[in-house]
Amino acid sequence: MLRIVWIVLVLAVFVICLYFLQNGFRLTPDIGIKGINEIRVEEKLHSRIYLHPGQEITGMLLGGFRGIAADILWLQIDEYWHHGQWYKCLPLYKTIGFLQPNFLNVWILGGWHAAYNICYQAGVSPRRTVQERMRDQHFWIAQGLDFLKLGIENNPDVYNIYFETGWTYFNKVKDFKEAAGYFAEAARFDCPSFVSRMYAHALYDSGDKEASFHVWKNLLAEVDEKEKKEPLNNKDLTHKKVVEKFYNRRKKELGKSQ
Fold first, then answer.
1. Pick the CATH number of 157-258 from 1.10.760, 1.20.1530, 1.25.40, 1.10.4160
2. What residue spans define the domains of the chain?
3. DSSP letters along 151-173, please?
4. Which of 94, 154, 165, 186 could form an S-S bond across to 101 if both were Cys, CB 3.0 to 4.6 Å?
5. Cα angle 240-246-247, degrees, rounded to a multiple of 5
6. pTM higher than 0.85
7. Cα separation of 188 and 71, whole Å?
8. Helices (H) and strands (E) in the chain, counts
């Protein structure tokens, strides 16, 4: 009997999520894209999922069935994805994010999905004017960044989402100063070598060429020190070549002697 109750509860969550999905985002001629109340976190240890005004299901109530509910939602995302119904995916990413807040890929995929895929779709809508399409694209980029930042709040001690946020600012928004800040945060943690290289590139593109040069200089010193202790593998050798290339280039541009 108890098992039946839990199964019914999970199915109810799924139905409510579908309602949220179908009624959450619409294009209107006067104000563009609207959404119902954002899903929020009341506190880090106890998430509340706001699916619709007056309807609230707590993470504590779901207990061990969070994973089952998330799996169902992933299947629904896959269905919408393959049918090109991209607008319908983001509310489900949000719900999964609060069911499993430490699952990094949901934040990364959801943020990328909004800032790139939905943004692209908004930019080619034949039912919108040029001005409306531009406004819609800015909206979805902002939605993607907000979603990534929410992921950072839930996972502040790993590099991944800091980097993805920095990349979105760097590649999509062209706000290199903001990108450099997120790349710098990402580089504080155990991370691949490309993270620090992107930090140096963002500093340079933001106009801080001196700071960029010093990042390249420090990276070269680090890899040289590592090489003294042990032979470099192929990945490290490639990293060293890239670092040497940009270190020498920036040094020449700035007229540095060393």
1. 1.25.40
2. 1-155, 157-258
3. HHHH-TTSSHHHHHHHHIIIIII
4. 154
5. 80
6. no
7. 33
8. 12, 4
* Beta-bridge partners for 25: 35
Which phi and psi angles does 52 have, rounded to 5°?
Answer: -165, 145
Mean pLDDT (whole number) for 95-103: 87
pLDDT of residue 125: 83
Please state the rounded mean pLDDT for residues 199-212.
97
179/168 Cα distance (integer angstroms):
8
Minimum mean pLDDT among 67-71, 187-191, 232-236, 243-247: which range?
A: 67-71
pLDDT at 10 over 80: no
Asked if the model's pLDDT at residue 100 lies above 80, the reply is yes
Residue found by looking up tokens 């990276």 in the block: 219
Q: What is the signed CA dihedral for 184, 187, 189, 192, rounded to 10 degrees?
A: 150
Q: Is the dihedral of CA 13, 19, 22, 27 positive or negative?
A: negative
3 state DSSP class of 35? strand
